[in-house]
Amino acid sequence: MEEELRKLIAEVCQHPSQSLERQKALNRLLVQIQHLPGLTKSSHPDYLDALNRTWEWLSQNLQNFKPRPPSLQVSLVKWINGYLYWRIQDLYAPDNRKYRSFDEPIGGEEAGQTYLEQLSETGFFTPLLSGIDGYIEQLQRQEQQRIGLQLEKYIESDPDGKLKNCHLKSNTQCNCLLLTQRLRLKEPPDKLVDLARELKVNYQTLVAHWKRNCLPLLQEIALSLGYERDIEL
């Protein structure tokens, strides 16, 4: 465990702060930390909030961690507990014990969404995740959104011409760039049958081109941007 922690910490710190590689290494490290003995616990109902704040702090400050005797594992737990202790104390502060109105905007007036609106979307049950699992899920969701925006920008600009140059031999207008824009970016999306009529292409030929050529090409582009292999486009 000692050597594994050392390697994971080094791997996290060697990558840029917003990189996909750092995110993946950080996720692996957090999973290992979850099993370390000695982490401070609390019976407070909002304990997971304190944990999530601690993992966020750790991800931003890991480069400042300095191992000390008797071991890296012990000093890492002490270092984490030093921050976690005060986040737990925050839970017992008077301001944190007040009841929240369901009509109160989350994150202030500018945020817009209220607690009641959030509950209507997520239901009244808290996900059964540990603090680390919940934080990892949050990071992964943010990373997916970031890459999704990158993919959308790539499709809009098609910098290498990959999408536009992938077309039917008999009809250059029937290319993957146009099809992707009309089937994936447009709201509401067009229907393949309407596109076939507009482009004067046989419907089955168009469907085959989309599935055999365009979707695999989109998958390849998405993977190059950091998506996991089994995504559905």
> Helix amount, in percent?
55-70%
Q: In angstroms, what is the radius of gyration?
A: 24 Å
Strand order of the largest sheet: 1-2
Strand composition percent? under 5%
What's the total number of strands?
2
Number of domains: 2
Distance between the termini: 39 Å
Main sheet specs = 2 strands, antiparallel
Give a short overview.
This protein has a two-stranded antiparallel sheet with strand order 1-2. The protein is mostly helical. Helices cover 63% and strands 3% of the residues.
What characteristics describe this protein?
2 domains; 11 helices; 233 residues; mainly alpha; 2 strands; two-stranded antiparallel ribbon
Structure description:
The protein is mainly alpha-helical and 233 residues long. It folds into two domains: 1-92; 132-225, no CATH class. The protein is 63% helix and 3% strand. It has helices spanning 2-14, 20-33, 47-61, 72-91, 94-97, 115-122, 131-157, 162-165, 176-185, 192-199, 203-225, and strands spanning 167-168, 171-175. Strands 1-2 form a two-stranded antiparallel sheet. A hairpin with a 2-residue loop joins strand 1 and strand 2 (171-175). Helix 3 (47-61) packs across helix 4 (72-91) and helix 9 crosses helix 11 (203-225). The two termini are 39 Å apart. The model is unreliable at 97-104, 106-111 and 115-129 (pLDDT under 50).
What's the layout of helices and strands?
Blueprint: H1 2-14, H2 20-33, H3 47-61, H4 72-91, H5 94-97, H6 115-122, H7 131-157, H8 162-165, E1 167-168, E2 171-175, H9 176-185, H10 192-199, H11 203-225
